[in-house]
């Protein structure tokens, strides 16, 4: 008689949540949830005002501050390992200095950015998924995300950036090459970046990173150096990308879009996922697209109301990565509800596929059979004021963790659908 399995089924998870995004210092036009660097805009259009004229005086000297805070609460209503709620928060604080005004250094920029996180992860505490349900989560701590200086050349068509850089602020990385510890939000690494824009249609970008962000935690509070160093043992990583902006010049069209195609490579030593034999190097390929499909008012310049489509895909070798390829995206509509021109309704699907080599090895070692993880996401972002928005989100996760069975019963993990 066959012994009962050591693994119990991990049920499909349904999670709901509310996410509040508050633009503390930044202009309204920059979304608080964006991970990209928050640039300053009009002096008067800030939540905290003009600081009795101090902000204007600092701006005259080329000094700008910006920041945002996101608070997210999620509840797993069914499925997964356990039911329950989590609350997490993330803050971004940024400092930008333009030496042109104060020191008369033309086309030079200086930037520093901090990321602060608190609260548990809904994925690790409730869901057990590999797709990171919350895109706002930061492990508790304070991180020096970026610290760089940039010089532009050839009528600002070329940008050279050197310092501490976060790769995913320039490149749309989703880390399907899970063996490579890329310097992504909120961590950065010492490196250099080159970007060339010959015209408004095409752009090329490449970057070199000396290693990972240092410690496994990456926080800079205790000690500060933990978030600054890149250890000598870390392998350098190179990323290259080519991008296309179409339909924007001279005026945005209904079918305007941006597409990015790239590759990243690490020269480090990696282990075969089945035999554990050493392998040299690891790499990944990625595609990202934000394509307009239809606009309500195509003759009005700058009007974004209408239907668009997000596309993402990434691939990595299956012999040295557990989950090695995935894809996703979906349609989103800006201004669907009358009188709510800035609100965004989106429906997305994300799938992560595990390496068959890794899956076979897991089964042969009396482990769970890994296959794929799928997530459906429905969200609505409502702008309450210029500086505050709320996102209601429902996620439905199929095969959380990529398995048709869960981890041993003695270990507790959670699988749920998040609502932001």
Low-confidence stretches: 1-9, 24-44, 213-233, 406-420
Gap from first CA to last CA: 47 Å
Oligomer: single chain
Strand content: over 45%
Distinct helical segment count = 4
Mean pLDDT: 80
Radius of gyration: 22 Å
Beta strands, count: 16
Shape: globular
User: Which secondary-structure class do the elements indicate?
Assistant: mainly beta
Series of secondary-structure elements, N-terminal to C-terminal: EHEEHEHEEEEEEEEEEHEE
Q: What about the largest sheet?
A: 16 strands, antiparallel, barrel
Helical coverage, percent range = under 10%
Strand order of the largest sheet: 1-2-3-4-5-6-7-8-9-10-11-12-13-14-15-16
Write a structural description.
With 420 residues, the protein is mostly beta strands. Helix content is 6%, strand content 45%. It has four helices and 16 strands. A hairpin with a 4-residue loop joins strand 15 and strand 16. The longest helix has 9 residues. It is globular, with a radius of gyration of 22 Å. The N terminus and C terminus are likely disordered.
Give a quick summary of the entry.
It contains four helices and 16 strands. By secondary structure, the chain is mainly beta. Strands 1-2-3-4-5-6-7-8-9-10-11-12-13-14-15-16 form a 16-stranded antiparallel barrel.
Please tag this protein with its features:
420 residues; 4 helices; 6% helix; disordered N terminus
Task: List the topology elements.
Layout: E1 11-22, H1 54-60, E2 63-80, E3 84-97, H2 99-102, E4 108-118, H3 122-127, E5 141-153, E6 158-165, E7 189-196, E8 202-209, E9 237-246, E10 257-271, E11 278-295, E12 306-315, E13 323-334, E14 344-354, H4 356-364, E15 372-383, E16 388-398
């Amino acid at each position: 008689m066959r012994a009962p399995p050591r693994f119990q089924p991990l049920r499909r998870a349904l999670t709901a949540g509310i996410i509040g995004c508050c633009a503390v210092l930044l202009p309204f036009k920059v979304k608080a949830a964006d991970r990209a660097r928050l640039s300053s805009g009009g002096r008067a259009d800030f939540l905290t005002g003009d600081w009795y004229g101090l902000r204007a005086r600092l701006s005259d000297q080329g000094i700008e501050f910006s920041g945002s805070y996101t608070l997210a609460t999620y509840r797993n209503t069914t499925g997964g390992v356990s039911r329950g709620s989590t609350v997490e928060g993330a803050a971004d604080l940024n400092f930008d200095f333009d030496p042109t005004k104060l020191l008369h250094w033309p086309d030079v920029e200086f930037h520093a950015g901090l990321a602060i996180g608190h609260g548990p992860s809904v994925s690790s505490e409730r869901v057990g998924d590999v797709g990171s349900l919350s895109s706002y989560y930061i492990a508790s701590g304070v991180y020096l995300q970026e610290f760089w200086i940039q010089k532009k050349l050839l009528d600002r068509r070329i940008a050279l950036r050197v310092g501490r850089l976060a790769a995913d602020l320039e490149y749309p990385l989703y880390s399907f090459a899970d063996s490579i510890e890329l310097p992504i939000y909120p961590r950065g690494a010492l490196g250099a970046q080159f970007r060339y824009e010959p015209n408004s249609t095409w752009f090329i970008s490449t970057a070199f990173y000396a290693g990972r962000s240092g410690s496994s935690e990456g926080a800079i509070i205790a000690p500060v150096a933990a978030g600054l160093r890149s250890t000598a043992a870390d392998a350098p990583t190179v990323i290259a990308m080519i991008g296309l902006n179409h339909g924007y010049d001279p005026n945005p069209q209904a079918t305007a879009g941006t597409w990015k195609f790239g590759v990243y490579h690490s020269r480090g030593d990696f282990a075969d996922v089945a035999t554990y034999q050493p392998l040299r190097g690891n790499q990944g390929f990625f595609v990202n697209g934000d394509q307009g499909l239809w606009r309500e008012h195509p003759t009005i310049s700058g009007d974004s109301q209408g239907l668009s489509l997000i596309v993402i895909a990434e691939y990595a070798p299956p012999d040295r990565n557990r989950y090695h390829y995935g894809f996703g995206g979906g349609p989103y509509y800006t201004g669907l509800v009358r009188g709510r021109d800035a609100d965004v309704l989106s429906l997305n699907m994300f799938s992560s596929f595990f390496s068959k080599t890794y899956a076979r090895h897991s089964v042969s070692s009396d482990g769970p059979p890994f296959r794929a993880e799928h997530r459906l996401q429905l969200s609505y972002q409502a702008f309450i004021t210029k500086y505050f928005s709320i996102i209601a989100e429902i996620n439905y996760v199929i095969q959380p963790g990529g398995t048709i069975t869960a981890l041993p019963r003695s270990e507790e993990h959670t699988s749920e659908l998040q609502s932001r």
